[in-house]
Amino acid sequence: DAEITQSPRHKITETGRQVTLACHQTWNHNNMFWYRQDLGHGLRLIHYSYGVHDTNKGEVSDGYSVSRSNTEDLPLTLESAASSQTSVYFCASSESMRSPQYFGPGTRLTVT
Amino acid sequence: AQSVTQLGSHVSVSEGALVLLRCNYSSSVPPYLFWYVQYPNQGLQLLLKYTTGATLVKGINGFEAEFKKSETSFHLTKPSAHMSDAAEYFCAVSERNYGGATNKLIFGTGTLLAVQP
């Protein structure tokens, strides 16, 4: 079955370190998204991509970057992790502009 | 800009009772609307969606929602709550502009549903 996976599921890192969270989908979806979920804020969009080599900033993009070298993967990089980036991160994908998004299981990141 | 408001961050119902979770949106163009459910330590699962057509949409697990343009609402209902419905529910609107859909979701802050035996 097609799916969307995220790794690692849990990560503890130190302030200032570079961290990369992986997202992989096997639906061949063009659209991919990264969100962070924090109590009281719901989900907020970090970055998104509409296809290979396309990336766009979302609502809370400062301190994060993405690259899209193939259809299946959209890794999220924290250039220099900060305690404010402690959160749960979700990746999602969708087939088209009118389609719903399908979410991965999430990565819980703690920055100490 | 589009926005979503979910009234009530916590809702508690008895098993067998009606579930009503409220969602109001703000959009200057016809919206695409979604409800997602999140069980503990899991990702979000699509419950139902409205894009065009029939304003009453049915989803999984017996949930349904009605798009009411005049009230800018998309409330989620289920006639009879089950213990397994306890979860957090998110309403979302897909950002659109006059150039068309962007597929970017704007989420409400969520409603945590508790079901009492």
- Alpha carbon gap, first and last residue of chain A: 37 Å
The overall average pLDDT of chain A, rounded, is 94
Low-confidence stretches of chain A: none
Strand segment count of chain B: 11
Summing up helix and strand content along with how strands pair, one would put the structural category of chain B as: mainly beta
| Percent range for β-strand residues of chain B | over 45%
What percentage of amino acids of chain A are in beta strands? over 45%
Multimer state: heterodimer
Largest sheet of chain A: 7 strands, mixed
Poorly predicted ranges of chain B: none
Query: Element order, helices and strands of chain B?
Result: EEEEEEEEEEE
Tally of individual helices of chain A: 0
Defining key terms:
heterodimer, A: 112 residues, mainly beta, seven-stranded mixed sheet, four-stranded antiparallel sheet, 11 strands, B: 117 residues, six-stranded mixed sheet, 61% strand
Describe this structure in words.
The complex is a heterodimer of chains A (112) and B (117). Chain A is built from no helices and eleven strands. Chain A is globular, with a radius of gyration of 13 Å. In chain A, 37% of the residues are buried. In chain A, the strands form two sheets. In chain A, strands 2, 4, 5, 6, 9, 10 and 11 form a seven-stranded mixed beta sheet that branches. A four-stranded antiparallel beta sheet of chain A has the order 1-3-8-7, with no helix packed on it. Chain A has 112 residues and is an all-beta fold. Chain B has 117 residues and is an all-beta fold. Chain B is 0% helix and 61% strand. Chain B contains no helices and eleven strands. Chain B has strands at residues 3-7, 10-14, 19-26, 32-38, 44-50, 56-58, 64-68, 73-78, 87-97, 100-107, 111-116. In chain B, the strands form two sheets. In chain B, strands 2, 4, 5, 9, 10 and 11 form a six-stranded mixed beta sheet that branches. Chain B has a five-stranded antiparallel beta sheet with strand order 1-3-8-7-6, with no helix packed on it. In chain B, β9 and β10 (100-107) form a beta hairpin. Chain B is globular and about 50 Å long. Classes of the chains: A mainly beta (112), B mainly beta (117). The interface between A and B is medium-sized, with 25 and 23 residues.
